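User: Show me a protein chain along with its predicted structure.
Assistant: Here is one chain, sequence first, then structure tokens.
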Amino acid sequence: MGEATGEPRQELWLIRHGETEWSAAKRHTGRTDILLAPTGERQAAALGRILADRRFASVLSSPLRRACETCRLAGYGDVASVTDDLLEWDYGVYEGKTAQEIRLEQPGWSIWTAAVSEGESVEQVGQRAQRVIQHSLEASGNVVMFAHAHVLRILAACWLGLPPEAGRFFVLDTASVSVLGFEHDRRVIRRWNLLQVVDSSW
């Protein structure tokens, strides 16, 4: 994890799952266990080519099928550990709705500032993200995690020492690859929202 200088070298690889029908429609998809769309399956297979059989000290996945299937198609299903801490934000009453639909009733609404009835607060998601970070720092090398847009955005904010709601600044597309790491002893973003185009339809 470090060289003779003691400089930390560990990286956290964040993989958002492939496209689903709901993600394509921009619907808030929290705990609804929706499957990958055909495009999402192709995206997940392409991730395997990006990762190129890279080995990780720990492979983590959300238990939801869209994340687990992305992990499997990318080539890491046999070595993955499932953790509820990587579940997507529980959107409560906003589940399945688009921001545009919600704003017709609540102008100016944002999931980042709203009180989420019957769901989780952004702070609660941040607590889960911090546990994942702590687990990752205790691993013997680099860690990859297959999960969801909002929980990974919040995790990135927490990694940088920012409040969980700062995740609003870090956009993640489906099947994207991002890498958190260190510069000297400072936590940084090394790569963000890298994409692999697998066909001309998206």
